[in-house]
Amino acid sequence: MFHDFQYPTILAASNRAAWQIDDVIGPDATLDFSKPFMPENLARTDRLYMLSAKERLTLNHIRAHEYLSLFGLVEEFILPFVLDHVRADLPDNDDVRVRALLQFAAEEAKHIQLFRRFHQAFTQGFGSDCSMIGPPEAVAEFVLGNDPLSIALFVLMIEWMTQSHYVDSVRGETELDPLFANLLRCHWIEESQHAKLDTLMVEALAAGKTEAELHQAVDGFMAIVGFFDLGCRQQAKFNLDALEAKIGPRPSEADRLELIELQHQALRWTYLGSGLVHKEFRKALGALSLNQLARIDELAPKFS
Ligand SMILES: [Fe+2]
Ligand SMILES: [Fe+2]
Q1: Domain 48-303, CATH among 1.10.3470, 1.25.40, 1.10.620, 2.60.120
Q2: Domain boundaries, the chain
Q3: 80 alpha carbon to ligand 2 midpoint, in Å?
Q4: For every residue of the chain, which 3-state class applies, written as one string?
Q5: Ligand nearest the Cα atom of residue 73
Q6: pLDDT tens digit sequence for 115-142
Q7: What's the gap in Å between 191 CA and the centre of ligand 2?
Q8: Whose atoms come closest to the Cα of 195: which ligand?
Q9: Residues 177-187: pLDDT tens digits?
């Protein structure tokens, strides 16, 4: 066994870590638009030589808008997925398992609300609209149409990814807007229990599967990754539209195309690559099948 995750300890940790939305962002809180919101490791705006420092900061804010909206969207399919998973085994003699999974779902519902609260503060401060891929219902319909193990693997990847977003990118950064940095910290705290619960979900769904069935589940996982990759590209274009609405059109078409390429890669790293290479995600997949892990390892560099 590569881990010691157990429902009672996860539930206890979750109870200890719980926070309230008002503690993270009060109803009248405002974001400080003189500071970046997203860590540079994810925003990757510093390398955009075709933009001035002020324009890069505006794009950083647009990336934060995208982060809030995209996480809201992702959590909208995680919530029904977790509820379906717990419902399928009811009645269940393991009360602690049921409570831990229901708490997981409740926390995701709280996160959706938290991201919306931040989105509201963003819109008030930014002053113009930023387009987003979606709608969330269509994304949820596509994702939830896959094999439950494919979905559980994708959700597991997202949970570990949020861990690295805070630990590798935000912790120690002093320049960020404190409210936004605290959002990423609070999300990290609760998501660390989710990552463990997801590991247990993946194990339960993979139990007894043959190599051919695991191969099929990883096919489904890769299809979801491909779907989000297309979304990342479209979102990079939307982000540029939002930037141009603020600063005026880019002077050259070549600059425009290069900016979209560079930012597409930044989004890929933020939402896919940083999860695909996460050591805990790789451990969970490797415990199921080293062949399937090798397939993911082959895919990962495209998203780095
Ligand atoms: Fe969450
Ligand atoms: Fe989560």
Answers
A1: 1.10.620
A2: 48-303
A3: 12
A4: CCCCCCHHHHHHHHHHHCCCHHHHCCCCCCCCCCCCCCCHHHHCCCCCCCCCHHHHHHHHHHHHHHHHHHHHHHHHHHHHHHHHHHHHCCCCCCHHHHHHHHHHHHHHHHHHHHHHHHHHHHHHHHCCCCCCCCCHHHHHHHHHCCCHHHHHHHHHHHHHHHHHHHHHHHCCCCCCCHHHHHHHHHHHHHHHHHHHHHHHHHHHHHCCCCHHHHHHHHHHHHHHHHHHHHHHHHHHHHHHHHHHHHHCCCCCHHHHHHHHHHHHHHHHHHHHHHHHCCHHHHHHHHHHCHHHHHHHHHHHHHHC
A5: 1
A6: 999 999 999 999 988 999 999 999 999 9
A7: 5
A8: 2
A9: 999 999 999 99
